[in-house]
User: What shape does this take?
Amino acid sequence: MRLKIIGTGRYLPEKTATNDDMAKLVETSDEWISTRTGIKQRHLVSSPEENTTYMATEAAKRALKNSGLKPEDIDVILVATVSSDYITPSTACMVQRELGAFNAVSFDINAACAGFLYGLNTVDAYFRSGIYKTAIIIGVETLSKIVDWSDRSTCVLFGDGAGAVVAKADETGMLACLQGSDGTHADVLECKARSNNNPYVSTSKDFDYVFMNGQEVFKFAVRKVPECLNQLLEKANLTVNDVDYFLLHQANYRILTSIAKKLNLPMDKFPSNVDQCGNTSAASIPILMDELNQQGVLKEGDLLFLSGFGAGLTWGAALLKW
Ligand code: UT7
Assistant: This one.
């Protein structure tokens, strides 16, 4: 048995901010953001109630509805996020409570933009070993609360949102997957947790924000994604021409075009919504997947290559039959 996706859902905040709105906050322009990243707007939460748990729960409800399963049918809830509402409990436990999915084991995965792929990998392993048979995997981020809104090099890039899939153990679906990490480059993309305020430690109580060496991450992504693709194609005994769509982490349209060029493939094989959503980290792939599913683009039997890459450094990839 292996992982088969049987339902998708997404939640995007109604509030959007355009590049011109960004130019009112920091010294930037629509021209710079559009040409360097392809981003035109991003969705941003606009109330304290519209938080990580809320967005994850809404996406999960929609994915459940799309799958035909009920909350009590679910064995596992995995939430990939770096922007939980609480240090503890996990977002997954909060989502479990909101859904009433009382039979599920629930936990979070912190693997940044590769988090959703780590989730798919983990659930596929559970299904293959026979431990569980159904799962909800969610990617959700409220990045707007951890970016520095005075730093133009990061704040214009990110957006908020959630995407979810419901998966069940089946004979078909996941053909091959992989995940990896390289902590030696941990410092190229980071956001420190709150500092220790015990009486024996003297530290500043300032919050920290996302820091990114964009060019290093860019180069890593353009090198790593084709590497992952080749490994998985070899494992599954397939060729690049067998792949119908490449659903890659939506960080920057230029990353997608560089990868397509490297693989000598047309851009219509690389669906993208980075123009509308910006970079939503762990949420970007399931949001895109739900859009394509709802639009009827994905057809039964289509071969998808998914790949996420980001802080850690982390990466993950999957070859999946729809
Ligand atoms: O999701 C996790 C994974 N993350 C990624 O995959 C992100 C990968 N990296 C990228 O997408 C790109 O590196 C960025 C979009 C982050 C940056 O694009 P870049 O072409 O690498 O620009 P840069 O960082 O080299 O900056 C070029 C110039 C700099 O000015 P100088 O030093 O050349 O005078 C920046 O200060 O652009 C300046 N700049 C801006 N100008 C206007 C940086 N941000 C902005 C901005 N508006 N928002």
Notes: The longest strand covers residues 160-170.
